[in-house]
Write a structure and sequence with these properties.
The structure is a homodimer of 423-residue chains.
Chain A (H helix, E strand, L loop, with lengths): L3 E11 L16 E10 L4 E8 L4 H11 L8 H5 L2 H9 L12 H22 L3 H7 L2 H5 L13 H10 L4 H4 L2 H4 L1 E9 L5 H13 L4 E5 L5 H15 L4 E5 L6 H11 L6 E3 L7 H11 L3 E4 L6 H9 L5 E2 L8 H12 L5 E2 L10 H12 L6 E3 L13 E2 L2 E2 L13 H5 L2 E4 L4
Parallel strand pairs in A: 4-5, 4-11, 5-6, 6-7, 7-8, 8-9, 9-10
Antiparallel strand pairs in A: 1-2, 1-14, 2-3, 4-13, 12-13
Helix pairs in contact in A: 1-4, 5-16, 10-11, 12-13, 14-15
């Protein structure tokens, strides 16, 4: 039995070229990861990440040090056989729970640790994450998840049933493995890009085979947003999908005005129109801009908030992110729950698509979520050992064992690092 | 001008006697504070606290170190003249914001820093916090608050109007200063207390002049809850108010069953019946158990979630806590907003009542919130320089300058401590 004998935590931050990653709220981001590396006595390594915008990544690292002793000394297969219970034990730790519950720095730490466990497990089994998840019996898959506080909308039995009901039709959806999962280009339209640069990027995205691009909006000057959105629509013609993303910049009254004005360019969605905790505000906006969809998720902290968004009809596109939620486990909870509502699931890629390019395959094949497009942001490609590959606008299906999260040794060498000691 | 020249951060944790502080979810708490101490060049010290259950207090301390440089070098009067803008700048820091937004460890850090600024300011002016707040012109009071994301329910003008409208009737409510603000005894009914101990405590609480006591519920065995609650009701007679507190132990279906059973003892409220992010769940329960009230707040992270609770009619008793929200500023936002809804405001006292005994005076006199009762938990009295005094079940009005948050030097000496360096 391959036993986890060591855990290390790294504070990894990456400078970005000027303007890259900029939006209406985050003017000068770095990208960052709080990285957990678990090691077994036979030399396997599992890497987990939680995404940040640079500053404060060390806070998540400190929190991982408090959680990680739970997995030390445990054989990976045995650990994963009851991982939902492990998640609950950590998230509901009788003292640390107060610091959330289930949100913020401590929840991100649980994401990093959880994702490391999944990466190690997939490597142990010698398969990519998507294959691992597809091959699990429905009961075993559901036992990876802490379903507490969802009992009113999703019981364990019902989650198993959802998976079982879709088993026989998996074949119809498996062609995605050969064809690749479509991507969309987020990096075309960063907030600070000039209109010339924006035009050039949209044209390049189309030439590269993308059928959808994202434009950052949320300007204090609404005319700028409308002008740029109209320009992209004119360049793109009627068939390219355009996503608009305000990154929470608007108050609810401002969002109403801006969304109404921006609807004229027929966007596919308007993303994060206001504060991500404002469920009723999103409900109002969803009703206002239909059939344009409201997208939200990169800052929705946990499954309980997702339950509220779904029950309230406050979201059209569920952008759940396994580096914001408590890792792959809680992502699966949200993806299964979402099958019960008239929504689409299109993850935000805090992981640059490394993990989510696996998860959308599972979403589509096992859960029957529509095959749409997954965000593509290439800025950290060179730092991963096994970066995602996009060909003709589509993610190539990952074939190597694990979750794609291993970070190059030369990157980790320059990071602040901590060894986790047993309790 | 008294300028802030130094900031220190302390990780203060306090062991509790066996059973004290226990509830259905937090089985073995310590109490803890992430403490910010600001110092001026003329020797004034302001102390701010954010409450924890011990574990992970260091995470909040690390976050305070990232925020505190903002106030170094600034004269306290000048800083407080634009404190709402300072709050927004820190909470919306272009990189750190990602770690919330406005929740969890980073938000608690902002609470600690904010509360230190208020304590320093009140000391500089030589008045207790309640007097400082009552004496501010409405405009100056509102400018202490970051009202962003509340625009649809509370504008700056409206907040000022709410204060102005109640100015002329303040005299009618000021007798509370002489009479003292009523307390209620939370320490009577900790979860792990035996029925004998519980009986003894309730009798002592009544003999001490308390007219309300709290009992912890949320047992996996609902019969235990009902038995203990019925016992307290029998001891107390029909006139004593009994609050029941489940500390988030129940799923929504379990909460429905338990609340229906517990309603038979006519509690004043049922507190934290399920997960604090489950706004629609609380809405369902509020409708189910009316006229018994749903109380929630010690884990409601920010003003945006409060807006949702209030708009949804999901709360009857707003237990906002200035050591969970971003300090006294965001507490004031919620207290002002709550005047627009049919609710009561009875803070949770993460601060053991040190700050909230000031804030309820402001609530009642300036905002017209009903004079009810404030939680009383005595377990950390000895660690404060100027602990609250309860006489005949009532808080004595604090008279010393500041917020009551100064912690004894002998306590701070044994804490982990960090000096904050300028940016």
């Amino acid at each position: 039995m391959s036993q986890i004998t060591a855990a290390r935590v790294y504070d990894a931050r990456f400078d970005l070229p000027k303007g890259v990653g900029s939006d209406a709220v985050h003017t000068d981001p770095q990208y960052g990861y709080a990285v957990t590396v678990l090691q077994t006595q036979d030399g396997l390594r599992g890497t987990g990440i939680a995404y940040t915008l640079g500053g404060g990544t060390n806070l998540i690292c400190e929190a991982i040090k408090l959680f990680a002793p739970e997995v030390l000394g445990r054989p990976i297969e045995e650990l994963m056989s009851e991982f939902g219970a492990v998640q609950k034990r950590l998230a509901d730790h009788h003292q640390l729970r107060w610091l959330g519950p289930h949100k913020g720095v401590t929840h991100a730490a649980l994401a990093s640790l959880t994702n490391a466990c999944f990466d190690l497990w997939a490597k142990q089994r010698g398969v990519p994450l998507w294959r691992l998840l597809l091959d699990l019996p429905p009961e075993a898959l559901v036992d990876l998840i802490d379903l507490s506080y969802l009992e009113d909308v999703l019981t364990r039995d019902e989650a198993i049933e959802i998976l079982k009901n879709r088993l026989s039709s998996r074949g119809e959806r498996s062609s995605v493995l050969q064809e690749g999962y479509p991507g969309y280009d987020t990096s075309a339209g960063w907030f600070q890009y000039s209109e010339d640069k924006l035009r050039e990027n949209v044209e390049r995205a189309m030439a590269s085979g993308f059928t959808a691009v994202k434009l950052k909006v949320g300007s204090p000057n609404p005319d700028r947003d409308v002008r740029r959105a109209a320009m992209v629509r004119e360049l793109a013609g009627p068939h390219l999908q355009i996503m608009l993303d305000a990154n929470q910049a608007w108050s609810l009254p401002a969002a109403k005005t801006a969304c109404a004005a921006l609807a004229s360019i027929h966007p596919y969605w308007i993303e994060e129109p206001t504060h991500p905790d404002d469920i009723l505000g999103h409900q109002t906006l969803a009703q206002l801009i239909a059939p344009v969809k409201v997208a939200v998720g990169e800052a929705v902290a946990n499954r309980v908030l997702w339950k509220n968004f779904l029950e309230a009809g406050a979201v059209g596109v569920v952008q759940a992110d396994c580096t914001r939620l408590a890792g792959i486990s809680e992502y699966l909870a949200v993806a299964i729950l979402a099958t019960k509502y008239p929504v689409q699931v299109i993850p935000h890629v805090g992981d640059m698509g490394q993990i989510h390019s696996h998860l959308v395959l599972f979403n589509h094949i096992a859960l029957g979520h529509a095959r749409l497009f997954l965000e593509y942001i290439p800025h950290l490609r060179e730092y991963f050992v096994d970066p995602v590959v996009i060909e003709n606008g589509k993610y190539r299906t990952p074939e190597n064992p694990g979750c794609g999260t291993e970070i190059s040794a030369h990157v980790l060498q320059r990071c602040a690092v901590w060894d986790v000691s047993p309790d």
